[in-house]
């Protein structure tokens, strides 16, 4: 008999029932039914891997397609097949109930909802008619900045508005202002600039004094212990270091200079406000040399060179101080000095000028002389008002001799003078060919309602607007100054000299044998010369 | 971001304080559809704006049927009149990387090349042209560099067909909250560079229809992206630290995503010091 034919050979399939070329009759329906049953049995075969079978799978796919009726089904049929397969693996019957996932979105929503609750204490305030601390109209400011395309979206603005209201209710605040938002890697900072009521900011000073007292007590204890130790054992100690660190520049008092305002920050509206510590000149000087991103956590360490004296909260405060000093401006004439005499550099007090006439917006955009800084410049020392740090050391130093030596060794620090308080911003220097400020109207199409917008180029992200008597400053950015060159970190200082160089220590080369002989010969010649002279003199005397 | 989703998307990227004024928004709403009609684009993306000292460039991109093909770029100074930009060439890209400083805001401003790159200036003078580079060329190069370096899309949003062209995935339902916080769920929407360097083991897990681009995981330097959940945890916002100003947003479990650039067009070369 001929063997099973391969598909490519003629004669293939002829031995199958119903395909023989001699059968002109209708094929046996029984055989057809059998073929169909075989095919169906094959389709119903369960896969050994997944437990599915093709028949049910196709049925599900067709059901899904007929239910949903997507367009161009043939193009996405494979994806539908995959989706149906994935759907098989969801457990329908489970004795355990799914734990309700508390997404972080719900927690945040809780906090935002809590902002809207009106406390009962507020009604009392309204009745008594006390001097309510002024809540800034954040929405109005946001409207003006929005005309220039600057600002957060309205929902977030409103949450910030409500958070500021809560802050005012909690803390004894006199004036309050939304300073801006600084972006960070993990979280952002929302910053409020605040002036506390008089008498409230002194708590910190008291704790400072207490701290000093305890330190003094500890010092006495330490000295007593040292004396006892010395009596017991007199071991030769290694030479003490003669290094005296440069005297620390004292920070400015709360309420003046760089610490004129107090700043509260929070990561998101709804979270509690945290007070930032006052800034010290050392922190400002160091902040000028480093450039670091904020992470969003106030207690994060700042790893940098020169090592920053503090953690992220201090760095944030230092940057806020620098930005305020560099970019807070107001229309010229809006503020005037409180006393006419105080127009010297020391003057720090200013008040609103009741006779201020706002110039038209076109003029505010064209000429930068219509704007003036109302925050004092920070000197190189890190303060607004210069102070000679070696004067304070008079009280602490006990030996006057050492003091005099120190003064001779130190270079005399020159008194630094900064710009007076209400300087016009037209005097700000630009960087290379970039002017310090860019002024634009908010719209060119409708000049009668346009707002004058000022953008800082030295601190990208600092904006100011002015429209009639209304003006404000704001900051949205990462918190860094602009520099056209790349940031070069400070190099480490030269290694300290281990010992003072003097003739007693300096090495000299040992004389060689020839040198010694030559020296001896020279000495003998000198002696011989002297004897000769002596003889000559004796001869002459005669 | 898609031009059609501008009104909904702008509040989502406003966390950084940058946005558009109502006038510009209205102008874009009117001019971008006209752009689509005139140039027969299938999709129009509002790319963002580059702020110069005296003016701002607003940039739009138009895409054809193959979304991964080189995109046509247009710029405008007032969001109404758009001019087509020529595609970037390698020399222009190399020169523009050396230019530093802010954009001036005037497209015909000329940068003196002699100070920056004497060779290129010499080459240009030999061929009879002036040794200058126009700001327009710098603009072209900057947009291309930014797109290549930090233009990102979520994983699964685009599929590659067997013919090689790339389409939006109509089956994309958004990343889950867990996936959205991982850098590996986002891809650079440009020619992949690292894909062929993956080991066979890694490639076995990939799905060639959706994983045909580089993910953000291996970006150098590490940590050059900041991922945050904003607006009470409803939006995932990625900000690039290499090109400050590029913001990507995605609402998890929805199809909404996009990126936009609001910045000065300068690369942040100090990034390694700042991390």
From TrEMBL, chain A:
A Pfam family hit: Radial_spoke
Region Disordered: what ranges? 1-24, 197-255, 389-417
- Gene Ontology CC entries for this record: radial spoke
* Places the protein is found: Cytoplasm, Cytoskeleton, Cilium axoneme
Record key words, sorted: Cell projection, Cilium, Cytoplasm, Cytoskeleton
Q: What are the transmembrane regions?
A: none
InterPro entries, per this entry?
Radial_spoke (IPR006802)
> What is one GO biological process annotated to this record?
cilium movement involved in cell motility
Acidic residues bias: where? 199-215, 395-415
Would you say which domain of life the source belongs to? Eukaryota
Record-linked PANTHER family:
RADIAL SPOKE HEAD 6 HOMOLOG A, RADIAL SPOKEHEAD-RELATED
Output this protein's name.
Answer: RSH4A protein
What organism is the protein native to? Answer: Pteruthius melanotis
TrEMBL record, chain B:
Show the InterPro entries listed in the entry. RSP9
Question: Is the keyword Cytoplasm assigned to this protein?
Answer: yes
Q: List the keywords (alphabetical).
A: Cell projection, Cilium, Cilium biogenesis/degradation, Cytoplasm, Cytoskeleton, Flagellum
Q: Where in the cell is it found?
A: Cell projection, Kinocilium; Cytoplasm, Cytoskeleton, Flagellum axoneme
Main location per UniProt? other
Similarity section: Belongs to the flagellar radial spoke RSP9 family.
**What name is this protein filed under?**
Radial spoke head protein 9 homolog
């Amino acid at each position: 008999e001929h063997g099973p034919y391969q598909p490519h050979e003629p004669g293939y399939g002829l031995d199958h029932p119903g395909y023989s070329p001699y059968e002109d009759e209708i094929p046996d329906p029984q055989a057809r039914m059998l073929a169909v049953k075989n095919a169906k049995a094959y389709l119903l075969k369960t896969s050994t891997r997944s437990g599915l079978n093709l028949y049910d799978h196709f049925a599900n796919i067709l059901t899904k397609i007929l239910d949903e009726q997507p367009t161009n089904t043939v193009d996405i049929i494979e994806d539908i097949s995959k989706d149906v397969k994935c759907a098989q693996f969801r457990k329908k019957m489970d004795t355990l109930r799914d734990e309700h996932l508390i997404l972080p979105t719900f927690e945040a929503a809780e906090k935002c909802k809590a902002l809207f609750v009106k406390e009962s204490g507020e009604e009392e305030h309204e009745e008594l008619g006390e001097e309510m601390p002024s809540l800034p109209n954040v929405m109005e400011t946001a409207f003006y900045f929005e005309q220039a395309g600057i600002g957060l979206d309205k929902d977030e603005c409103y949450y910030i508005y409500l958070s500021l209201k809560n802050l005012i209710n909690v803390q004894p605040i006199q004036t309050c202002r939304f300073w801006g938002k600084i972006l960070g890697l993990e979280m952002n900072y929302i910053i409020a600039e605040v002036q506390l009521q008089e008498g409230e900011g002194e708590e910190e000073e008291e704790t400072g004094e207490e701290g000093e007292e305890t330190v003094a007590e500890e010092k006495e204890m330490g000295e007593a212990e040292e004396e006892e130790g010395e009596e017991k054992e007199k071991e030769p100690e290694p030479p003490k270091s003669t290094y005296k660190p440069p005297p620390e520049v004292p920070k400015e008092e709360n309420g003046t200079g760089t610490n004129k305002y107090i700043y509260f920050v929070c990561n998101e509206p709804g979270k509690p406000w945290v007070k930032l510590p006052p800034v010290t000149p050392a922190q400002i000087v160091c902040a000028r040399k480093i450039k670091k991103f904020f992470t969003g956590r106030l207690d994060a360490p700042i790893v940098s060179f020169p090592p920053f004296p503090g953690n992220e909260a201090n760095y944030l405060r230092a940057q806020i101080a620098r930005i305020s000093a560099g970019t807070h401006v107001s229309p010229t004439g809006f503020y005037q000095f409180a006393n006419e005499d105080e127009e010297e550099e020391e003057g720090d007090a200013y008040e609103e000028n009741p006779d201020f006439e706002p110039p038209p917006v076109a003029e505010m955009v064209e000429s930068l002389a219509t704007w003036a800084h109302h925050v004092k410049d920070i000197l190189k020392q890190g303060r607004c008002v210069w102070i000679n740090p070696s004067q304070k050391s008079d009280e602490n130093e006990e030996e006057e001799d050492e003091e005099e030596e120190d003064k001779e060794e130190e270079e005399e620090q020159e008194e630094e003078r900064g710009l007076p308080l209400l300087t016009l911003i037209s005097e700000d220097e630009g960087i290379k060919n970039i002017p310090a400020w860019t002024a634009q109207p908010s719209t060119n199409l409708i000049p009668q309602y346009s707002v004058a917008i000022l953008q800082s180029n030295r601190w990208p992200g600092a904006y100011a607007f002015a429209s009639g008597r209304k003006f404000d400053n704001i900051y949205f950015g990462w918190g860094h100054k602009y520099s056209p060159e790349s940031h070069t970190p400070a190099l480490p200082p030269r290694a300290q000299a281990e010992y003072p160089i003097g003739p007693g220590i300096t090495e000299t080369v040992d004389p060689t044998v020839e040198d010694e002989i030559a020296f001896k010969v020279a000495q003998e010649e000198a002696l011989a010369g002297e004897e000769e002279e002596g003889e000559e003199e004796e001869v002459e005397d005669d | 971001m898609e031009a059609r989703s501008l009104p909904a998307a702008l509040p989502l990227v406003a966390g950084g304080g940058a946005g558009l004024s109502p006038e510009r928004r209205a102008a874009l709403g009117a001019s971008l559809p006209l752009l689509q009609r005139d140039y027969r684009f299938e999709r129009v993306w509002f790319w963002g704006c580059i702020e110069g000292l005296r003016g701002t460039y607003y940039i739009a991109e138009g895409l054809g049927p193959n979304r991964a093909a080189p995109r046509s770029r247009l710029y405008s100074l007032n969001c109404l009149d758009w001019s087509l930009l020529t595609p970037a060439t390698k020399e222009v890209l190399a020169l523009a990387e050396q230019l530093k400083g802010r954009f001036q805001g005037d497209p015909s401003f000329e940068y003196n090349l002699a100070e920056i790159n004497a060779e290129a200036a010499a080459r240009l003078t030999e061929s009879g042209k002036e040794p200058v580079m126009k700001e327009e060329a710098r603009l072209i190069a900057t947009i291309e560099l930014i797109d290549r370096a930090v233009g990102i899309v979520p994983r699964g949003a685009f599929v590659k067909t067997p013919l090689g062209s790339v389409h939006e995935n109509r089956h994309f339902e958004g990343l889950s909250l867990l996936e959205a916080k991982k850098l590996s769920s986002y891809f650079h929407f440009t020619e992949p560079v690292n894909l062929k360097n993956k080991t066979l083991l890694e490639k076995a897990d990939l799905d060639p229809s959706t994983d045909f681009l580089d993910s953000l995981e291996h970006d150098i330097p590490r940590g050059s992206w900041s991922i945050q959940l904003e607006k009470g945890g409803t939006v995932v916002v990625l900000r690039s630290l290499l090109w400050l100003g590029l913001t990507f947003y995605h609402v998890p479990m929805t199809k909404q995503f996009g990126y936009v650039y609001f910045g000065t067009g300068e690369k942040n070369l100090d990034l390694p010091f700042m991390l």
